[in-house]
Amino acid sequence: MAVLKNKISLKNVSKTYYLKDRTVEVLKDITLDVKENEFLVLLGPGQCGKTVLLNIIADLEKATSGEIIFADGRPKMGDLGMVFQKYALFPWKTVMGNVEMNQKLKGVDKATRQAKAQEYINLVGLQGFEKAIPKQLSGGMKQRVGIARAYASESDIMLMDEPFGALDAQTRYSMEDEIIKIWEKNKRTIVFVTNNVEEALYLGDRIMLLASRPSYVKKEYIVDLPRPRSYTDKAFLEMRNEIVANTDLDI
Ligand SMILES: Nc1ncnc2c1ncn2[C@@H]1O[C@H](COP(=O)(O)OP(=O)(O)OP(=O)(O)O)[C@@H](O)[C@H]1O
Ligand SMILES: [Mg+2]
Question: Which fold has domain 1-80+155-251?
Answer without folding.
Answer: Rossmann fold (3.40.50)
